[in-house]
What does this fold into?
Amino acid sequence: MAAMAGLGEPRSCDTFVALPPATAGARLIFGKNSDREAGEVQEVLHCPAARHAPRARLQCTYIEIEQAPLTHATVLSRPAWLWGAEMGANEHGVCIGNEAVWGREEIQDKEALLGMDLVRLGLERADTAEKALTVIVDLLEKYGQGGNCMESQMAFTYHNSFLIADRKEAWVLETSGKYWAAEKIEEGVRNISNQLSITTKIDREHPEMRAYAKSKGWWDGEKEFDFAAVYSYVNTARMTMSRGRYCEGYKLLNKHKGNITAETMMEILRDKESGINMEGGFMTTGSMVSILPQDSSLPCIHFFTGTPDPDRSVFKPFIFVPNITQLLKTNSPTFGENDPVKKKPRFLTQPDRRHELYKKHEHAAEVMEACKEKGKEILERIRKLEKEKISEMELILQNKYLDVNQAVHLFSECVEEEIGAYA
It folds into this structure.
């Protein structure tokens, strides 16, 4: 496939959601590993809510679109070279993660909206999961999806699937060009990986999705419509029994069903045997776990690593409150109009995009490799720090009390403590 020249088999990420009664307590748990090219820096940034002038324009990674009158506050984990995000959350408790998927429909080389742009746009413009779905499919219809998804002159393009969650429900949205299907999840567990997974339970769809499939000869118009089987080459009857990461994720979620917590989700994201915590030329470069309480008086809590390999990283908590301290040590340097991404031909050079936490983590990883004893000590320190933070967050939810003045510095202070643990 030309779209993946030089990259071998499809590689992607894994996104998970667990809803009551699969979770411990009245809360949804969301999680995602972002699997990207090794060495690509993922930054964590907070964007405050904003109002925009009428007819304002917005520059996304490759194309310009119309700006919304109001954008919600977001926290994003994103490859530092682009505008969009691999995963993130907004102030209304909406979380989105996306995946690369391939199928029968050809992938467009033309620059349009990246799937990662659509993640950020959904978070900025919607206050529920279903509204975010609507934002994404409307923009997909208007602008299309396309463009290189890697900071490289080697083309890497794909269609996208999305897992979108809020305090009440989750939606899986899977696309093939401009066509799409969506499945509503109201209880239990669900995961997505680098394959189409919506079969016959279709709750929303592109109005021409079935007619287009029929016109291409993919569907006879009589057999029960199975989106994944029609739009890709997936054997949906064996989908949860094969040895791929989608199946492994499905098994891990079901193994813990009924007692899933944020810590359970972190364990799943750290699992190397399943391939979910990916190693090698493509690896897990950033991870996210969110607690979304069904009680709207309680805060949603979002944990981000901002560093590669969750097994050697700290999931650090973030809570939306006014006047949050800037996340300076997980923000990458910017290069303005001199950024090689903005010049054509693109990607002729690659600047150093490492943020301060990334550099400290990189050095600590080298120490872990070189000296097992020192490595063990560092790992013990960072795990202790993470456990303390998870316990503190659990107390906030149990006591139903949030000190807003402390929450302002929550993520930034945890980054400082993590840097200290690497010393």
